[in-house]
Amino acid sequence: AQSVAQPEDQVNVAEGNPLTVKCTYSVSGNPYLFWYVQYPNRGLQFLLKYITGDNLVKGSYGFEAEFNKSQTSFHLKKPSALVSDSALYFCAVKGNTGGFKTIFGAGTRLFVKA
Amino acid sequence: GAVVSQHPSRVICKSGTSVKIECRSLDFQATTMFWYRQFPKQSLMLMATSNEGSKATYEQGVEKDKFLINHASLTLSTLTVTSAHPEDSSFYICSATDNRAPEAFFGQGTRLTVV
User: Fold this and answer.
1) How far, in Å, CA of A59 to CA of B5, rounded?
2) Under a CB-based contact definition with an 8 Å cutoff, are residues B65 and B48 in contact?
3) N or C: which end of chain B has fewer CB within 10 A?
C-alpha cells in the first residue's frame, strides 16, 4: 500500500535561512512524487514533481526537492526562506504500477519569521 | 500550468437542503477528476474518483447517495451534497488530470457550512 509520512507538524525558520520540509514514502514500484503548497482557504498549488532522472528537481518559487531512493525520502528545500513562504506544504506520492491514486501526507505547516 | 476552477468558494446552506459544487478544467480536458474533503488542520481525504462518462468510484466509508458526483463532460464535474447536515460542513477540493502528466491540478476549494 502507498503511504506518505511528513514527520513534522510544523517547521519554523527565520527569513533568509535555508528551509527543509521532510517527507518519506512507501510505494510499490517506482514512484511519482510531488510537493504542493496550500494557502489559507485555498486549494493546493503544484510546486514540483519527481518522475525519473536527476535526483534534484527544481520547482516553483525557488523550491527544490531531492529524491533519495535508498532512504525513500523526498525532502523539500529552499536556500533562503521568505515570509511569504509561510503556508501548509503537502508531500504526495502516486504509484505507477496500477491504482493511480495520489496519496497525500498529513501536511507540514511552515512559519517563516521576519 | 493547467487551471482548475471551483465554484462556489463559499456556501452556507440550511440543514436538509442540497448543495452543488462545480469543478471545471479551463484549459485542458480532464479525463479524471478527484474530490477531496479536508478537515481543519488535516490532510486531504479522497472521497471519490470520477472519469468522464462513467460512474464515480467512491472510497470506503463515503456514502455515494449522499455525495453525488457527475462527470458529464471532459471539463466539468459536479459534487452534490444531498440532505446536508452540520457534520457535512467542511472544505471540499477538486482536482483534475488529463493523464498526460502525473500531477493533478486543484481547484480553489469550497467552504461548506451547514446551519
Assistant:
1) 22
2) no
3) C
Nearest to A31 by CA among A108, A105, A110, A85: A105
pLDDT in tens, A35-90: 999 998 888 999 999 998 899 999 999 999 999 999 999 999 999 999 999 999 99
Cell numbers linked to B69: 458526483
The Cα of B15 is separated from the nearest Cα of chain A by a number of Å equal to: 23
A97 compared with B96, residue with greater pLDDT: B96
Question: What is the rounded CA–CA span in Å between residue B25 and residue B42?
Answer: 26
Find, in chain B, the residue whose alpha carbon is nearest to that of A105.
B43
**What ranges make up the beta strands (E) of A8-107?**
10-14, 19-21, 24-26, 31-38, 44-50, 56-58, 64-68, 73-78, 87-95, 102-104
E strands in B39-89 = 44-51, 57-58, 67-73, 76-81
Give the Cα separation of A50 and A32 in Å (integer): 6
Q: Beta strands B10-13 and B110-114: pairing type?
A: parallel
Contact between B46 and A41 using a beta-carbon 8 Å cutoff:
no
Q: CA B35, CA B16: separation in Å to the nearest integer? A: 22
Check: CB of residue A50 under 8 Å from CB of residue A36.
no
Number of residues that this document lists for chain A: 114
Instruction: Kindly report, residue by residue over B4-51, the tens digit of the pLDDT.
Output: 999 999 999 999 999 999 999 998 998 899 999 998 877 889 999 998
SS3 B95: strand
Chains A and B: how many Cβ contacts under 8 Å?
Answer: 51
> What length does chain B have?
115
